[in-house]
Amino acid sequence: MRVLVIGGGGREHAIVDACARHGHEVLCTPGNPGMAGQARLLTSPQDAESLADLAVQEGADVVIVGPEAYLAAGIVDACSARGVPAFGPTRAASRLEGDKAWSKAFMARHGIPTATHRSFTDLEEALAHAARQSPPIVVKDAGLKAGKGVTIAQTAQEAEAALRDIFTESGAQAVIEDFMTGQEVTVLALTDGERYALTPSSQDHKTIFEGDTGPMTGGMGVICPFPLESGVLERVQREIIEPTLAGMRAEGTPFTGVLYAGLMLTPQGPKVVEFNARFGDPEAEAVLPLLDSDLARHALDAARGHLDPATVRFSADASAVVILAAPGYPAEPQKGIPLGLPGLHAHERLYHAGTREHAGRLESSGGRVLAATATAPTLQEAVDAAYALADRVDFPGHQRRRDIGGRIGLRGPHTRI
Where is the ATP-grasp domain (predicted)? Predict the structure, then answer.
C-alpha cells in the first residue's frame, strides 16, 4: 500500500514508523530528516487543495493527517472530493477540537461530563465573570493553539492577564471553566464514525518544569499505558466515547479518524478536559510503538467506513517518552543547535520533532526537538530506558523534565544537566 502522511513533527515520524514497519511504501510532506530512512519526503505547498492534488498525483491509497491545522483547513474534504481515502475528520467534524466553545456546548447538548464552564466573546464580560470565581480557574483560548492556549490561573490577576492576552486578537473567544482535580489521562479512539477501537491509555506531562510547574507546552513526556482503576475504561466508553460519536452522527457531522479524549479522573468519575481531532503529540510517540497491527490498514478501513475493531491489536508492553526541548522553549526556543544522535537498540526510537539539515549537519529547528521513546515489559523499565536513551543524545543546553511518570510513583533521574 502507498501511504501519504501529512505533517513534519514527532507525531508524524511515529506514524511513518508505524506504517513502514508493516512494509508499506510511505510518502510524507513536508516531513523531517528523521523520516528519510523510512519515507520518501515530498515538497509541496501545504494548503488542502494542493495536498489533495499531491495525493492523486502520487497514487496514494490512503492519506493519514497528523496536525490539527490541516484538518481545520479541510484536507479530508479535499481528498474525499478527489476520491482519495483520508484518515481524519472533515472540516465540520474537526470543530470538536478547533472551537473549544462549540465543543463545550456540544458536550452540554449530549450530556458528556466535563467541567462547569462559560464561553465569552466580550472581554469585559469575561473579566467580570472571572472576578466572581474562586481561584484556581482555567482560562482557555477557544481557537487552535497547539496545546498551549490554556492557563491555570492561581490568582485573579493571572486570570485577567490570560484573558487580556486572548482578546488581543480580533474575533477571539475565551472559555472559563472550573478547575478539576485528579489524574489527567488520554484515551484515543480509532473510529470510522460508528465503530471504534481504543488505544492503551496514556499520560502526558504538559508543563515545562518538574512538579507540573511553569508554562504550558505541547507536551514534555508520556507514559503508556496509564494504570486505570477497574471500571474506569468502561465508564469512559459508555459516558464519553460512545455519546460523542453518536452525537456527532446525530448532528450530521460523523467523526472519522482519531478521537482524542483528554480526561480528568475526578472523584466523581472521568470528565472531558478537551477533545482533539487527531493523534496527540507526544502521545502518538508512546502509543504507536505498542501497536502490533497495521496502522495503514486500519486508517484505510476507517476512511472507507468499515473499521473492524477486533483487528486492532496492541502489545502488552509499556512505553515512555522523554521530550528533549530547545533552550528557551516554550517562549523563544533557540534554533540551529548541532545535534549528535546515538545508535539505537531494538526497544528504542528517537523521533524527530523539530530538526533540520543545514550545511551538512543535523541541528534543532523548533521547540520540541526530539522524542526519546523506549518500550519495555514494565512502566518503570520503560521510563528508565527512555531516560537512558535521552542521556546518549548530544544536544547542548537542552531542557527535559526529570519526573516523567512521577505522578504515579515512578522514579526519574535526579541529576541535572
Answer: 104-304
Residues 286 and 165 in one domain: no
CB of 4 closer than 8 Å to CB of 63: yes
| Residues with pLDDT less than 50, the chain | 415-417
Contact 144, 97 (CB under 8 A): yes
pLDDT of residue 415: 40
Q: Is the peptide bond before 215 cis (omega within 30 degrees of 0)?
A: no
Residues 144 and 37: their CA atoms lie apart, in Å, by 32
- Let me know whether 48 and 72 are in one domain: yes
pLDDT at position 145: 67
Neighbours of 174 (CB within 10 A): 28
Residues 62 and 139 placed together within one structural domain of the fold: no
Q: Say how far residue 406 (Cα) sits from the centre of its chain.
A: 20
**Domain of residue 161, CATH code:** 3.30.1490.20
Amino acid at 408: I
CATH number of the domain bearing residue 275: 3.30.470.20
Q: How confident is the model at residue 417, as a pLDDT?
A: 36
Q: Is residue 105 part of a domain?
A: no
Query: In this predicted structure, what is the pLDDT of residue 416?
Result: 42
Same domain, 170 and 197: no
Three-state secondary structure readout of 263-326: EEEECCEEEEEEEECCCCCCHHHHHHHHECCCHHHHHHHHHHCCCCHHHCCECCCEEEEEEEEC
Closest CA to 148 of 265, 68, 259: 68
Tell me which residue range forms the domain holding 374.
318-408
User: What pLDDT is recorded for position 150?
Assistant: 85
Q: Helix or strand or coil: residue 138?
A: strand
Q: Determine the pLDDT at residue 170.
A: 83
Q: What is the pLDDT of residue 353?
A: 97
Record the pTM: 0.93
How many structural domains compose the chain?
A: 4
**For helices 156-166 and 123-131, angle between their N-to-C axes, nearest 10 degrees:** 170
What is the CATH number for 349?
A: 3.90.600.10
Contact 349, 311 (CB under 8 A): no
Q: Is residue 104 part of a domain?
A: no
- Rounded to whole angstroms, how far apart are CA atoms 7 and 70? 9
Amino acid at 1: M
Q: Are residues 172 and 228 in the same domain?
A: no
Given this model, what pLDDT does residue 37 score? 92
